[in-house]
Amino acid sequence: MGKVYDALQRAEGKRVQNIEEAKQGEPGLRPHQPVASRVGAVADFGRRAPRWWERALGRGDRTEPESAADLNKRRISLLQPDSHASECFRSLRNRIDSLALQRSVSTIAVTSAVPAEGKTFTAMNLAIVSAMGVDQRVLLVDCDLRQPRIHMAFGLLTTCGLGEVLAGEVGPEEAIVRVEGSQLDVLPVHALPPNPSELLGSNQMKSMIDALSTQYDKIILDVPPVLTLPEAKTVSDLCDGIVFVVREGMTSQDQVGSALEVLDRSRLLGVLFNGSGEGPKPYSHY
User: Fold this and answer.
1) Is 182:128 a contact under the CB 8 Å cutoff?
2) 109-149: pLDDT as tens digits
3) Residue 141: which of 32, 235, 267 has the closest Cα?
4) CATH of 2-34+72-274 given 3.10.20.740, 3.40.720.10, 3.40.50.300, 3.90.550.10
């Protein structure tokens, strides 16, 4: 345990350093520009959500930088592998592995009806605990080309990402990075493209997933919410299974019903109920 603890401490120090360097050298995600030249003006989604997004959600700006505590919570299975939350994600992993005995479940889309339900949190931690398996090759793909979060949560410094891969500017191997202190690979988002829907619905996206499926035992994709963006349906249809996240006190029955009408129910692995407030029970360590 001492070596594991030391490795996690080193990884945490490196992650904080990466975040600080990213803040100094790259104040925010940039609009997409070709890797070869990085010139030319394109649409800039910037750090703020479109007004229609805010009106749809009835909330203010959701793109404010997250605190270090918020980022740490997103990757709790990496920082606290013996925690109750980590055990919950191991249970989820085991249930999915049980389903995999009946049918192929190598590519999994994680999505929700609306934002802020915990889909990115779920995708990250499911990927972390899956990568803890012996000889398991696991890839986490950030498919949110508008408001990505995974690169910041892991403190990744990127030079290219999913947008550049789908645009044919680089190969997946150039954009995939290893999360320090783990066996998890991540395909993050680097720059925000002006045409996210078209890229995620392209033949390049399908070809990329097909090719990566031969290299990894499990690919987990963090997909935008179903009821706010069209990409959820597009990407989930390319996957073997879907994990649908519902948050207590936030998701209405109408929203759940509407989202499930959009998704292919034959691919639905299950519904994850997030934020129930149930902590570890007495003697849960047994």
Assistant:
1) yes
2) 999 999 999 999 999 999 999 999 999 999 999 999 999 99
3) 235
4) 3.40.50.300
- Comparing 110 with 279, which gets the higher pLDDT? 110
Find where tokens 């499926």 sit: 213
Please state whether beta strands 177-178 and 184-187 pair in parallel, antiparallel, or not at all (unpaired).
antiparallel
For residues 163 and 32, the answer to whether their CB atoms sit within 8 Å is yes
Q: pLDDT tens for residues 206-232?
A: 999 999 999 999 999 999 999 998 999
Domain boundaries, the chain: 2-34+72-274
- Rounded Cα distance between 264 and 93, Å, is 21
Dihedral angle, C-alpha 151, 85, 94, 223, nearest 10 °: -30
Strands lying side by side in the sheet with 107-112: 177-178, 184-187, 138-142, 218-222, 107-112, 241-247, 268-274
User: Would residue 5 be called left, alpha or beta, if left means φ above 0 and alpha means ψ between -120 and 50 degrees?
Assistant: alpha
Q: How far apart are CA 275 and CA 278, in angstroms?
A: 8
Q: Are 111 and 236 in contact (CB under 8 A)?
A: yes
Structural element, H or E, at residue 22? helix 2-25
